[in-house]
Amino acid sequence: MTKTMQPSLPQPSSTLSLWHRTTRSFPHLHANRLAPVPASTKYLIIGSGISGVLTAWKLVESGVNAEDVLIIEAREAVSGASGRNAGHIRPDSFRGFPGYAKFHGPEQARKILENERVVLENVRKFVKEHKIDCDFNYMRTFEVALTDEVVDSLSKSMAAFKAAGGDVSHVKYYEGEAAKKETRVPEALCAYESPAASNHPGKLVQWILNDFIVKGGKLWTHCPVTKMDRFRSDNSPSLRWEVHTPRGVIATETVVHCTNAYAAYLLPELGKFITPRRSQVNSFVPPLSLSGEDSLKHTMALRYRADHFFSVNALNNGMVVLGGTGTRSSSDMTSEDLITFDDSKYSDRLAHNSTKEFLGLCHEPDSASLRHGEGLDHAWTGIIGMTADGAPLVGPIEGLDGQWICAGFNGHGMAGIFTCAPGLAKLISDLSWQDTGLPECFQFSTERIRRSTNQRVKSTL
Ligand SMILES: Cc1cc2nc3c(=O)[nH]c(=O)nc-3n(C[C@H](O)[C@H](O)[C@H](O)COP(=O)(O)OP(=O)(O)OC[C@H]3O[C@@H](n4cnc5c(N)ncnc54)[C@H](O)[C@@H]3O)c2cc1C
Predict the structure, then answer these.
(1) Candidates 139, 260, 387, 418: which one to mutate for ligand 1, based on the most atoms within 8 Å of Cβ?
(2) Are residues 187 and 229 in the same domain?
(3) Which of 23, 104, 299, 316 lies at 20 to 30 Å from 401 by C-alpha?
(4) pLDDT digit string, tens, across residues 294-341
């Protein structure tokens, strides 16, 4: 049974990620930090992660007056998972199919994976069209099997996905020596290659946020929303909600919850549906063997078991970023300890485990052989919003007219939100679900939450 947490607001003293540490001069980082909130706004978006910021941007693109849109953020701008992830936009080509199919059926499972491919292409086009300086690099990624168990499960997932009509024409397969050579992982038993991207997620989201503000949009940071009530006044029939913050109350027509792991604080009915889970990422400066011409030019997931893996991201500047799940056997914490809203801590043991993987990629015997400045650079954590059925929640919130949600991205938001947030903006603008092109199983419904809460999907990210 998964531990249930009391809902929480984002906690104040979170770790700074590599992305945060390299963008401290972003001018809107602490926008309106001490100012009282506006008395009213037409659209109020809670959360300045990629969900909130892109929903706001897309609303403005569709014709909404930017001055009518206010983003409220509990901490500094982009301080949630969007500013502290592993920088990977890595569509799942087939691996997660059986898990999704168990919950949502084969057709929806296929659509979930197809959606991730669309997201990668959408981000690629968006970055190119707007010439965004966010270290975006379209490259190859590999699912690397390091045990027979993983060889077997990947092959079964691929077969099941194909049987459901899934397209794998973009996936290349290597085994034995070819897998070792392509991936540069000496222990690789087999590997599946597909397209992905590396990027600086902080710079990407900050660009969108800045563009929204330049167009007239508003941002209030360090300003948690603590409560919501129905607005009662005969003078302003269009205003529906009173949104409470420590710096005043905002009356609004439309509330959009882009609060990911924290959604249940304002929507208690999600308390058992969205579970917070801390995840750790570590950045590394490569030594000679993995730098210069030999720097890593592809990304990977190194899989030991379904629930034990390391994600490996290769940045444009040659640095390597490793994330992982941190299961009971691989960390100094039990998996129960990882169910938390606390992103102020990181684990030395997880950093050590990632260092071992990194040294394996460099073929270095141990950290002692590295120069000062090489090896582990930084470790940070963030909170993932895990949903009971493995799919995000998008759409209108039943029973709360004028309230909408885009949340619960299960550690895969960079591969999901670039269709979900634009889809939500369409729904808010009165278009239909069909117009969003999203899998139907993403749609918010009370019935979905009730049904899923007692049979959680097992996460393998
Ligand atoms: C360590 C880590 C590594 C990851 N690696 C990857 C990866 O490599 N690839 C990938 O695809 N995905 C990855 N993810 C997942 C991805 O980062 C998320 O799915 C995505 O960023 C979610 O975006 P979001 O905007 O929905 O949520 P967030 O970015 O979490 O934004 C939610 C915002 O809401 C604010 N907020 C919450 N409650 C309130 C409130 N009451 N009042 C005001 N503000 C509030 C929060 O402070 C936060 O800024 C990772 C996540 C983590 C934590």
Answers:
(1) 260
(2) no
(3) 104
(4) 999 999 999 999 889 999 999 999 999 999 765 444 445 566 678 999
